[in-house]
Structures are given as structure tokens and as C-alpha cells.
Amino acid sequence: MLKNLALILVLSSLGLCATYSSINDVPKHHWDFIIVGGGTAGSVLAGRLTEDPRFNVLVIEAGPNNEKVLDSLVPGLQGRLPHSPYDWNFTTVPVKGLNGRSVDYPRGHLLGGSSAINGMVYTRGAASDYDRWAKVTGDPGWGWNRLQPYLKKQEKFEQPSDNHSIAGEFDPAVHSLTGTLPVSIPGFPHPSSDAVTLKVTEQLGGEFKFNLDWNSGHPLGIGWLQATIGHDGTRSTAATAYLNTHVRARKNLHVVTDTRVTRVLPTTGAKGLNIRTVEVRSSASSGPVLLTASKEVILSAGAVGTPHILLNSGIGDQEDLKILNISVVLHNPSVGRNLSDHTVFGISFGLEPNAIDEGPWANLFIDPELQAQALELWQTNRTGPYVALVPVDHIGFVRVPKDSPIFDQFEDTSSGPDAVHIEMVLGAIAGSYNAGISMISPASRGTLKLQSNNPFDDPLIDPNFYDSEVDILIAREGVKAVFRYAEAPAMKNITTGVLGPLANITSEEDIDNIVRDGSMSAWHPIGTASTSPIHADWGVVDPDLLVKKVSGLRIIDASIMPYVPCAHTQTAVYLIAERASDLVKEAWK
User: What is the fold of 156-234+343-441+466-518?
Assistant: First the structure.
């Protein structure tokens, strides 16, 4: 009861802060910075920049306020967020590598952005992922060692909600207890299935060895899940952590929701290309409102939203823009290119009767009565299965075997020998043992283009999955890795065999076709406004994230990553925003 009262008081107090749902309600003001997008990166930037009382900041978010969005607050209700008002509800074009299928492309459409709708998995990737960024951009500040202070500043590792001992489940030496974003081990373990997974690590070792903490920069092996869920059993988002009640009360911060930035505009009469003005609309039928920042406009609309705004503003490939009758402001063919994303594909094994004791919540995902009971437990005292996402407590990271002929023919797609090719999300649910496999070091690159010159029309998203042959070969190896995992004695004693079309394969080509038919996006798009070295003839932003050949415009979000890390990308976005906040402060000190 007291926890409920506390939550109500917190949520009510948020209404006292400078958050508006219409641009017309925002007081006339002098803005030093206008942040386009109140998502993962934008929320971090707003919180950090307004630590300096000299800076007046306006955040413009297209989606609604995150306050009181129950499905986002409750980890176990995450499955209700796609196809909701809190999702942009994008769909890809037909993807050749998916046998011509179009797939959903969820992106967060509320304060907190995709951090408020994602699967909450907190992974950093390999140290070599970031060292590759540093090498390709020419800026050592993007390397693993140089980013460590920002990891500590970002993360606040907490005890899980059930207060169970986490000794042996993580390495405290690689975590921060004093940062901003709550992170924890799952607070509703599943002892029976967890025991099976841990037994496999003992029996097989090698590629399936136990890894005490795959967030050390050395992720290979199987370890305990870490997630952006706090000790209170509530999802942690960029908005709840960086735009909390205290931050939103700052006099130098204003946040407006339900408002679209449709274009960024050059300043007339300025020397060179100076862009510090944004055009905003509350709907497709409303008139435009122009707002100008004295220092910078910062695009933080994400890997889909940022290139969409740039292209509508006339910044992109001039031939594509001319076809749509968009005036060319700056020819840069890299805008909307280099789209990189992870795929995910599921494999299930049947279970012998009573092989795994799933307890009283075994039918949670199919029984509305159990779901109501779980929600009541969460609302009453933050306990029960809804303090976690799904009954998955372990993730494995593996590489293609060293003796595979793949890399005799193709260059290794990963960032280094300690980086990952395949992620395995492991656990039992609804009478089956499941492995969600992701191909997380892809070579394929896709595109984001406009379908019209109407900024309210969705962009044409083509992730181009499996376009590079090496990607489908690695995905095939991922299936084989799961089959090897299933050969462990601990698994053979409880499973009845693989389920679905993989039970009937007769060739490796059958595996490939099944993977193409079943894969979807893992919701980790990056790269559509990539960073490159200063003076490079490719890329969209310099290493300081200022747009090339433009004054006053900076991009800070997932779109600037030149390569996708072998990790769920939210951690990397938090890191980018933390470091970029310091870059901005330094530029205007």
C-alpha cells in the first residue's frame, strides 16, 4: 500500500514540471539548445546539459509523455507495447533476404523512446566493438578504455527486487553502483530451468562456458541476464532516470510532447550553411511553427527518425531528393545509408512431462487470470513474475568455430577474436525450452529513404537482412550452435527434440530457408547518419558528432554508430549520449 502511495505521489508531482503537450503552451523563451527527440539519447542530453544553469534547453518529443504508461513501467507487460500508441508502428519494405517478407520495425514513440518499449536487456558488447569505432572515426575517445568513465556515470547496479543473493551472478568490479540508470539481475528467478542452463555450462564448457559477467568487455560464454530494471521491479528508461521529477523541475529545461519536428532549416543570410532552426507541427493538418536555438539544434530522433528529418530537410542524396521535388540544401549520399541491424530467430525444443518445474506461473502467457494475478502482485508490492520480462535468466554469446570454412572465403564480420557472432537467449516457457538466436555482427547494410515529400509519411525502411552471403552462413552456424547446446546430457534428459520446420531439414540450404522465413528485426538499427573521420568523403557527422559542412547542427543517437556492437544497442546509445554531453559542454564552455 505504501509503495502504491509513493508511486502515485511521484507520478502526480511530475505534472508540476515544465512538460507540455502542445508547442503553443510552451512559454516564449531563448533556447540555447533544441533537442529533437526525447528518446534514449535525447533524455540523457537534456538531463546532462541542464546541469549547467547557463544552458536553456527545449526538448521536442513526437510521442506522448511517459508518465503513468503502465505497460512501460511494468517489465512483464513489455509484450503489449509493440503495435500500441507508444510504438511508431513502422514496417519494412519487402526484404529480399527474408524471402520477400515485410517485418515490423518497432521504435519507441514516447518520452524515453525505445528504452521505454524495448526488452530491457543490458549488454555492452565487446571492448573491440568500441575500439573499432575509435579506429574508423580517428577519435580514440570512442575507444573502450576512454569510455569507461561514462559507463560508471551511466550505470547504477542495484539489488534485484526479490533481494536474492547475486554473489556469483555478476562481477562487481565491472559495474557502477553510483550512476544514473538502474540495472539489475532478474528479480524472479526460475530455479528449475536455470539449473539446466548452468548444468550445460559445466558439461560442455568451451563455447558454452560460464561467463561470470559478459559486460566486462569479454562477452563470450553464458551468463546471467542483466536488465534495465530497478530494485523496485520497475523498468528503468532514459526518461525515468535522466528526466525524473528533480530534473524536470529545473527552470532551464522545457519539454514538449506530441509534437513533430518535420524539418531543420538554414538561417538566411548566414555565412556558410548554418542550421539552427526547426519546423514543428502538432499534426499533418496544423500549420508550422519555427523555433531557433542560439547555439545548436541536436537531432536525437534515432536511427529512423534522424535521417527521415534530414532527408525531408533537403540533406541527403541530391538525385533522390530531386525526384521527390525536395530542394537540395546539402548533397550527402550517406544520409539514410549504412543501416545495420540484428536479426532474431527462434528455436524451440519439446519438453518431457514435468521435466522442468515451471511452478504456478507455467501458463502465465496464455492464462488471463494468471496475468491479472501477476499484475496485482506487481501493483501491490512489486513482486511476482512481472518484475522481469519473460522467464529467461541467461544469455549466451558464441563465435563461429575457428575451423569453420566461412572465414576462408569471407572476412570476419565481428570486431575481433573476443567479439560475438551469435547471441542465444535461453529459457523454458509454456512447455518448451527455447533459444532466441540473433546474428549480431552483420555485414549486410540497408537503407532508409523517403516515399514522398510529406514528412508525415513513413519512410521506406529496408534493413536488407542477409543480403551478404556471410550473414546467412553465420546464422546457419547459430542454428548448429543451438543444436550442439541441445546435445548436452542435461538437455537430452529433458527434451523430446526440436519443434517446427527445423525438425524436418534434410540439407543446410533447408536451414537457410527456414531462417529467412522466420527471422525478424531485433530492434537494434544503427548507422543511418554514420560518424566518419574529419574530411572523409563519406559519413554524415565528424567524430564530435557535428554534421559535416554544417554549422549549428549535431546528431547524437544510434544513427551515428558506424558499426553495430555485438550487444543490445541501448547501452551503446546511453554511452554515446553521456560522452556527447561532455563534447557539447566543452564546445560552449
Answer: Glucose Oxidase; domain 3 (3.30.560)
